[in-house]
Design brief:
The protein is an alpha+beta fold. 27% of the residues lie in helices and 19% in strands. It contains 3 helices and 5 strands; from the N terminus they run αβββαββα.
């Protein structure tokens, strides 16, 4: 897409701090990092969300995520790694091109777990949600 900043990075029309690239994905350091080594891995196929990514591109994207995870672990030696996707504006997605965040974590870095990002249980019970999801 002509107006997508991540597509422009893929096409090398704008610079980025690329740390990994293969035929299917590019990984680059976030310019507003939340932690040292905060990296985004993006598919070269323009997909706004994970649901828009063709099935054939899912495995190559996550193979790249795994390689970048290993690189960050080896070179930065964090105590852990938070890996996540913000999908849609309600989740905080700012660029409408799928991107997987890898954030190296250290003990006492004042961060928190992914499940602490949201605290909205809703009105329906877990059983009601299950029935809704499994109904035809």
């Amino acid at each position: 897409m002509d107006d997508c900043i991540f597509c422009k990075i893929i096409d090398k029309k704008i610079p980025a701090h690329v740390i990994y690239e293969d035929a299917h994905a590019v990984a680059f350091l976030d310019i507003m990092p939340r932690t040292p080594g905060h990296t985004m891995v993006i598919p070269k196929y323009h997909a706004a969300t994970f649901l828009d990514l063709p099935d054939a591109d899912v495995a190559p994207l996550f193979a790249a995520v795994k390689k970048v995870d290993a690189l960050l672990a080896k070179k930065l030696m964090p105590d852990g790694m938070t890996i996540g996707i913000n999908q849609g504006p309600a989740s905080g997605q700012e660029v409408a091109h799928l991107h997987v965040h890898l954030m190296p974590r250290w003990l006492n870095d004042h961060g928190s777990a992914v499940q602490s990002l949201v605290n909205h249980e809703g009105e329906e019970s877990v059983e009601e949600i299950k029935r809704k999801l499994l109904s035809s």
